[in-house]
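Subject: Predicted fold for Starvation-sensing protein RspB, 360 residues

User T.R. writes:
Posting the sequence so we have a shared reference for the thread.
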Amino acid sequence: MNLPRTMHAMVTIGHGGFEKLSYETDWPVPTPAKGDVLIEVKACGLNNTDINTRIGWYSKAVTTATDSDTTEEPDGDDPAWGGSPISFPRIQGADVCGIIVAVGEGVSEARIGERIIADDWLRDEDDPKDINRTGYFGSERDGGFAQYTTMPSRNALRVDSTLTDAELATFSCSYSTAEGMLTRASVTSTDTILIPGASGGVGGALVQLAKRRGARVVAMASEAKHEDVRKLGADVLLPRAPSDLRAALGSERITVIADVVGGPHWPTLLDVLERGGRYTCSGAIAGPIVELDLRTLYLRDLSFFGSTVIDQSVMPALIRYIEAGEVRPALAATYPLRELQQAQEAFLAKQHTGNIVVVP
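User M.O. replies:
I've generated the structure tokens; pasting them so everyone works from the same file.
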């Protein structure tokens, strides 16, 4: 196959607003290094981490919600998810669906032609369980907001599915994040789980994957999106921020909360969690600074689980779920790569239910 020397790519040139996104039409096509594969990107999902990294939101110097106008600046020491600065220019985008078109040294040429989705976690080859030596695709190395990208061969997971490229590009980040949260909190069929922000990418994945485990699901979302969330399998639908959450729940007994929202309503969530309940978190889109009464934590024997670096078993399991039809994509909209800014604006405005995907 004759590969082009240059490609279209959306390049992030630093931390900041949309002015830091530069659409390039003659960016060099990367060459796969030893152990790598070259992917022709067919579609790439958009996630909170793409926006958080661009604006430097992971820095503790930033305290506002991800969709807020702010004059706060990252302090330069911890603006990326892993606590260390990333290098620019950087091509972001983690949720790649594409075709392997070339391989680097040490990778079998039999892989050429495989349809893949990305395992986004870049683990140390010598010690893959060391979470301190784990990076993220589209952060610590260039990702998929381009026509071509490279990744370690072990991160390119073959998938056999009739789903479209855009549909497959919804899974890698949102669904693996959700499955990682549920795994950390040991969710089973005996649980009733409360999911704030259930209309988002991770929220919708949480609904499906919790139902797959047999749990009862209480979903919180804006009422205009209730029907969409109901189709994902939610048993009970509540408004996004009920004035009296306990009253709204009625007889429901919440044993697990899976949260990516945070923000000012956070304390009300803990107040409805049963004694011995578990809270798992992998985001704070409504704001990272919350108020915790430590008496709620210890007197009610609650357990808290942060969830970022997922277990190695999660992505292979997710591939099995996809191929068996046990989960379905929640594709909200697709945008051309050159319109990534508009896609991110729609994402921040929560215009859609589910995942947004860009197509080169």
